[in-house]
Design brief:
Helix content: over 70%
Radius of gyration: 14 Å
Number of domains: 1
Structural class: mainly alpha
Number of helices: 5
């Protein structure tokens, strides 16, 4: 099982609700990306690791959100898919031409979605 899936499973087994677990995993992905952005240049190997973790988190989220039996309204499912598409594109752009400012949008999306999931 992947690191992101393990982290998700471990978090979801605690007393957190599934939404709180999703929030925690998104916040962790944002934190890893933030550390890379804040220490740009000194953690070159961490960029790929942080982006891979984020990609795994988003893959799990978008897969779960767009399952046919998921009770979310179609507009919400489409919104999650649109966000995921943007995040995946930005990650590819960042790997192709690394720049710390490219991480800002991903970090912001992760933190805002995490806040919404946790009710903040």
């Amino acid at each position: 099982m992947s690191y992101a899936a393990n982290a998700y499973a471990k978090t979801s087994r605690s007393v957190l609700t599934p939404r709180e677990a999703e929030s925690a995993v998104l916040a962790k992905a944002a934190q890893r990306l933030q550390m890379v952005r804040d220490n740009w240049g000194s953690q070159s190997g961490e960029l790929v690791a942080a982006l891979n973790f984020n990609q795994k988190v988003w893959t799990i989220l978008v897969t779960a959100a767009t399952e046919p039996d998921n009770p979310l309204p179609a507009e919400v499912k489409q919104g999650v898919m649109n966000l995921a598409t943007f995040v995946f594109r930005r990650m590819i752009e960042t790997i192709a031409e690394p720049a710390p400012e490219k991480l800002t949008a991903i970090i912001t999306i992760n933190l805002n979605l995490a806040a919404g999931l946790s009710g903040r």
